[in-house]
Design a protein that fits this description.
about 220 residues
């Protein structure tokens, strides 16, 4: 008998931490506590990288965990952007068009996912993981050391590419799925499934023709 996975585990706890810490981080930003905000948002980004690794390494992945992770990721990203608004307002206003180019499609993807699936997507593609890493590095460098422009443009570019991939996946995958490697792997799997179906069809057709030829 297969043992049921417990929802009370470390990866889910780390994701839940990101969710409940977001309002507290926003409050710290309102108070102007940049140092506390920076260190705690650093820990949030660390849990973002840690929970997925722990879940895969010790086979603790679940649909609930994937949803918690996605919500935690989104709240961490939005909280970090709010921190930029509070502590790096001049930088944000100077580059607001570039920021909107990344942020508006991101919000559109979330709305589309809720419209299509009834909940946010949890694809967790390789591109999404890469974008989250680059975003985290940029935000932390911005809060600790100030803006690094090549890293800023790199984060925006990867974010836009990742969001576009997820929007395409929303229309390619009719049902909610988690841990999708990316659009390339979805297309490759569909081609392989198509070839397998064609092979089975040819085999079935060959069997039907056999009695006719023997008679």
């Amino acid at each position: 008998m297969e043992k049921k996975k417990s929802y009370f585990n470390l990866p889910n706890a780390l994701s839940f931490y990101r969710i409940i810490s977001a309002p507290f981080l926003v409050w710290l930003a309102f108070l102007g506590e940049k140092q506390w905000f920076t260190w705690l948002i650093l820990f949030s980004f660390f849990t973002d990288m840690a929970d997925g690794f722990i879940a895969r390494r010790w086979n603790l992945s679940s649909k609930l965990g994937a949803q918690l992770d996605s919500v935690g990721d989104a709240l961490t990203f939005v909280t970090a952007v709010f921190g930029v608004w509070q502590f790096e307002y001049a930088f944000l206003m100077e580059h607001k068009i570039v920021v909107l180019i990344a942020f508006v499609p991101y919000l559109l993807q979330i709305l589309l996912a809720i419209t299509i699936y009834g909940r946010p997507s949890s694809f967790h593609t390789y591109m999404a993981k890469t974008a989250a890493l680059v975003q985290g590095v940029f935000f932390l460098c911005l809060f600790f050391f100030g803006p690094i422009m090549w890293l800023f443009y790199l984060a925006v570019a990867i974010t836009v590419l990742e969001v576009l991939e997820e929007i395409i996946l929303l229309f390619v995958l009719p049902e909610w799925k988690t841990d999708v490697k990316g659009l390339y792997w979805v297309i490759r799997r569909r081609r392989a499934e198509g070839k397998e179906k064609a092979k089975l069809f040819r085999a079935a057709s060959h069997k039907r023709r056999r009695p006719e030829s023997s008679s």
